[in-house]
Structures
1.
Amino acid sequence: MTELPVAGPSPAISEIDPASLAAWLQARGEPAYRADQVLRGAHRPDVASFEDLTDLPVPLREALAEAFRFSAINDTHVVGADRGLTAKAVHELADGQRIESVLMRYPARGAASARTTICISSQAGCAVACPFCATGQAGFGRQLTAGEIVDQVLHWHRPPWRALGDAGGHYNVVFMGMGEPLNNADRVFAAVRLLNDPRRLGIGARHITVSTSGVVPGMDRMVDELPQVNLAISLHASTDELRDELVPINRKWPIRDVIGAGRRFAERTGRRVSLEYVMIDGLNDGDAQAAGLADLARGWRCHVNLIPLNPTPGSRWSGTPPAGIERFVRILRAGGVTVTVRDTRGREIEAACGQLHAQLSGRSLREAREARALPAAPVATA
Ligand code: SAH
Ligand code: SF4
């Protein structure tokens, strides 16, 4: 895959390696403890710029602002849905590429405590070209850097959202935005390590999920390099004939290989793999597909997650109606498979990633804002 360099004037604090930061500080005659202080400070939920690092001397704050970017994201526009419980950001990067991330809050209900999910992008666009996916239809832009990946999480962690603080530790970061994370494995793995770093966000690997269309070598690398991260496989069909169309990377790694890699992951990490299945009316939701899926999912540590299709503009397909989903669920359960149905958060804000981006039709965020072509943000609740 070709890779374009990011025209960034300076490194972002989210990806700078602590040793380089320490060397930079040392060259300015600063004491050794400053590197930790800067890193921890820049990742605090109440800090929105270097200026807010009030425990540092003013000249040092100014020098940091000159030498480093506070974020690898240049500009962000947020739109909201579900009465402020779902918010979606379009982020503009230094070279004008745009990506999306989504914040979903689930308030406490009965015995279930509050949860927050942050959905992030791994690439600008995607080369896999699944025909039901807005990102896939828009084509591939470029790989994201580790900092650009981490800064999507930081965006929601910082004011006014402070999203990681509000769920009492019950939060997840999922690579289910734009892009195929395992086609950008080096940067995605580096981003996971940055997210894990206790001096930064300190997000445990078990709170992170990588979703893949079935990049087998990448799945095998996860076993060795990120065995505590959750793996989700976007299956969407139980025959190669149909999956070749719905998830074109299937022509390279067919179902058998993908399930084989999923089983290796489950066996070697002891973790349950999630099989994602987008329900498309009349296409992949028949009884035979359900029975085939039950055969693929039976007998190993996995569960099936059904997602009603969120149709992209002009799509020839629609989501399976509730009765069809129930029928599919019954067949899977009768086949001995654990299954959940995912809710369709944020439909009104085009929350299936790539859709809002498409709506901008080439305009920059500033231009779109001036033309009032973007809906407004919900009120952030801390
Ligand atoms: N490329 C990776 C991760 C990003 S896509 C992957 O495919 O797994 C994240 C999930 O959103 C995938 O399961 C994908 O199939 C699903 N998805 C994409 N477009 C969708 C749509 N229009 N409606 C519902 N789910 C969609
Ligand atoms: Fe890429 Fe995932 Fe969309 Fe397929 S569903 S085009 S793999 S982002």
2.
Amino acid sequence: MSNNPTLQAVRGMNDILPDEAGLWLWFEDTVRAWLEGYGYRNIRMPLLEPTALFKRAIGEVTDIVEKEMYSFEDRLNGDQLTLRPEGTASCVRAALQHNLLYNAPQRLYYSGAMFRHERPQKGRYRQFHQIGVEALGFAGPDIDAEQILMCARLWRKLGIRDVSLQINTLGDVAARHRHRGKLIAYFEQHSDVLDEDAKRRLHSNPLRILDSKNPAMQNLIAAAPKLMDELDDEALQHFAAVQEILRRHEIAFEINTRLVRGLDYYNRTVFEWVTTRLGAQGTICAGGRFDGLIEQIGGKPQPACGFAMGIERLLALLQEDGMSNPPPALDVYVVHQGELASNVAGVVAEQLRDAGLRVLLHCGGGSFKSQMKKADGSHAACAVIIGDDEVRAGQATVKPLRGGEQKSVALGDLPGVVSEFLK
Ligand code: ATP
Ligand code: MG
């Protein structure tokens, strides 16, 4: 026995094992086709970014920046780096750095791991995965609505039911400023009810107090001044137009004025798709408009809108519905015994692959019987069986693994016969 202690993955960071990975692959294929159906193009950014990017984009006084980021100093050169907690900041950084927005808006998407140091639990991990969708350089309510419609289509494609849509508008800078002043004054009047978190945020980010889950503060929060009362006409019209398009497409929604989102860069439309079937981690997709972010990261002011969905939560929902891993995609299992047969089997396997088939060549020896057991368990459609005597006769056996008669086939005819059988 080894004396080395077994090493484990970092807490909250999951291995996705082959039995589950098939579902991921199917999901990723479905999502790619769906995004292409709306003209979105793929972009891939690094996992590590300068810490300053996230502080500036997400906001200093947010859960993510205050307590969830994996930030560290690169001890080789002193750089301050952070594993990305989300993708929007990196996506905008990349678009600006490479001048993508110079003379055309961009519809972009990315997919990959995000990192947040949260308390791991069902649906909440320290490394998790998102599909992120960003429309950069678009001002109108049509794009906000299109992104919401897109989501609805994806839920239909995936067979996801029981998700509901909540929307809100956060207005623009001036309205938020007025609202902020009123909120601070209101909460100051009731400072005896505020918890420590709220007190700390009172002057830095009072809007986030509205997001508190503390039961003792719920009455206070319910009666707080409403942003809705401060909105100017333009923001209201934008919001009305988004709703109008949703109604035209018969997308049901609920206006939730308490939806503020945990990141500072949002303005105007925000939305979340929520299910009640995943316990507390019920938000599977969230997003909204971020018209100020591009300028904040150093670009010319340009409007934008986007959303991200959590892959683990979506797949958990699919698994709740009994969706399981599709069986491995394999056409042929090649069984062989004897030295001559083994050499020929290797050549036959390559010829079958040349014909476009998915082939598993048995490795590791063993009796015909034990190899056939493996072939049966492999989910392949048929086995090709090769023995020394058969090779000398220029033959092999093709055996269907899900019913049907086996037959002898000339070696040279194998690719054609097996392809025909699989049709
Ligand atoms: P929550 O309120 O659940 O913490 P959030 O507002 O922090 O979510 P966003 O930053 O909007 O989440 O990320 C978009 C989506 O990514 C979420 O709706 C969720 O599906 C998923 N997500 C966020 N954090 C995690 C996590 N730690 N583990 C798994 N999925 C996550
Ligand atoms: Mg969060």
3.
Amino acid sequence: MGELHELTVAAATKRIASRELGAAEYVDAWRQAAAGDELNAYLWRAEGGGAEGEGPLAGIPVAVKDIFCTEGVPTTAASRILEGYRPPYTATAVRRLREAGAQLLGKTNLDEFAMGSSNENSAFGPVLNPWDRSRVPGGSSGGSAAAVAGGLAPWAIGTDTGGSIRQPAALCGIVGLKPTYGAISRYGMIAFASSLDQCGPLTRDVTDAALLLDVVQGRDGCDSTSVGIDGGIEAPSLEGLEGLRFAVPAELAHDAIEPGVRAVFEATLERIEQLGGSVAEAPLPHAEHGISAYYVIAPAEASSNLARYDGVRYGMRSEGAGDLIEMYESTRANGFGAEVKRRIMLGTYALSSGYYEAYYGRAQKVRTKIAEDFDAAFADFDFVVTPTSPSVAFGLGEKTGDPLAMYMNDFFTVPMSLAGIPAISIPAGLSEPDGGGPRLPVGFQIAAPAFAEQRLLEAAYALEQDIGFEPSPGEEGDG
Ligand code: GLN
């Protein structure tokens, strides 16, 4: 494979168009790479020869998080409860990629129903980080991120409800974009928390993120919350950041940021200034309550969305139950993992009549306050920036015993999800983890106002050119 897997998709499409590279050869090379998966990144892989499609992405394979329905292809959401399920239809995002000529390379591993920050909640085992296989890739789109970073896919799609694209992108040293809520159709994306879930790209660079977003965004009659991005998305080309104003939220000076992550973040702020941008603190007073609000709202919506898995309509059914109720109960008891059950219980409790106002109602008010904080910041600034994650990739098993510590990984990503605004994570450098060890990628998060994706991608692109991050583990890692 060698050099081929270091090409960005944008570069590969050019070579394919000019016939320097055969589409079938390119697809086959990626099929072979995916077949050698040692990271547990894939739950299913396409077989057979790569038929040549037509369109701007002809011959380009794509890895798809296994939470997108794909007709006739197993779709599990990494849950036992969906074992054996083959959807009768395909998610709009995947269909759009196919219509552009792209081919399904495989379905990637994730935290069960996208609930998690480390990919350790998968019923099919954790994904390993290609930079250090004793560490997590981040979650929940960990399979997609590890596949791209580990040379097992040229690019991938994932979903982000509270950080699940941005956080694994950061921990694996690639680019991850959560678009504005409504930019991409959610049709066929298995629902976790419907008011937050968004599809987005995980790619080697910002240009590929723009290319992928342009293909999948758009209004879709099958999802009434989808509106698309006016005018589509073009390849970014901005040089320098003259005149652009970047806000650093004062309240997000979170104690638990690893010193190495803080150092890379501060060095990136200096780069912004060298490129002509300005950096200043701005108040985002309610953002620090994002985690509390998110972990009421997301479980509340999940408890309702997951009510449909009853052993009748989808996937597995427990055998040997005496009656219907017993069958529901034992299917759900055996089919769902511990984190999913925890969320269903939390969510059901928060929505119960005696507590609805105290928890769900209150959390919704906090959500509005956070959105208003961003509106106020964007009156004076073009972007809000934070580290993507408080730490670099942590060790497998390190946080599984402490759900609250796990939830804190989302401290920087959840506020943007609650506000519905777009945010991108780009790799900004490497840092030695607390406790020592080989240096690992650090993500830099940039958020922008709703539907300002083009501007966001331009700024991320300019910064990316300056940073010059090499997205393969190569000599630094053991992958
Ligand atoms: N880590 C968060 C959670 O567990 C976010 C997950 C996501 O964005 N899907 O809910």
4.
Amino acid sequence: MAMIEEILALKKERHATILAHNYQVPEVQDVADLVGDSLELSRAAARLDAEVIVFCGVDFMAETAAILSPHKKVVLPEKGAWCPMAHMITPDQLHDLKALHPEAAVVCYVNSTAEIKAKSDICCTSANGVQVVASLSEKQVIFVPDRNLAAYVARYSKKQIIPWNGYCYVHDHFTPEEVRAARERHPNAEVLVHPECRPEVIDLADYAYSTAGMARHAHASAAREFIIGTEVGILHRLSKENPTKKFIPASERAVCPNMKRINLGKILWSLEDMSTEIKVPEPVRLKAKLAVDRMLAIGRSD
Ligand code: 13P
Ligand code: SF4
């Protein structure tokens, strides 16, 4: 049997659903039941009627699914697929930051560990950070771990945003020169970038969106060409959904090696073996769930 057929047969047998992030390799996106951004995949994990969720993404994404769905088995096909930014703040560091700003609310980007979520008031993703901060009554907001998303949210808020100095090494690498050069080569293209990019890169873009926001915009826009300032994996989905439009990466170097660690063989093996289950200790899960649930009650801003 071809590997894809084996995966589909085992998926049925196990009552499993395969979720894939927009940065996954094409063949993984193509075998998934749902391809989406962090927010869409979190919502799906909570609502889906499946016994097993095969989460093709990085650690914090599978962890968020496990936080929301304690009665489902959540497997990450490659346990070594992790997001470096999510580990750039420790619970002790957050504890010290909170002690310095006792009046502040704590917002954690979903790209964070379960322990950090458990110590935060509310979670956000790149799709709803602005709305999450606006929903808070506090005038001061500690925002962890991404300094760039914090700066992006601060553009739309009168609150004092206190950022942590974390960053995504893929998005932080885009330069204004790359965006200017891409625009010169493609003067009719719209420039879409992710809010994890540096502020000076966002300043040069037409729009900043989460990965799902980019997919929606590309579909709705009358433009024929788009320069894409995020991880290159999303180009597969964009081109598949919009075959007559052209998508140009703002940088060919924008590859997240962790997202690329999952392949069809590992999906099949994880469904067979089930040994790569992601578990969150119950006391941490319950606290983290409060922060994620508060976020899920709020809509998205893109
Ligand atoms: P999205 O939520 O926009 O998909 O982003 C997740 C991520 O890891 C970006 O690097
Ligand atoms: Fe983490 Fe960046 Fe990879 Fe997204 S692209 S998973 S933020 S390292």
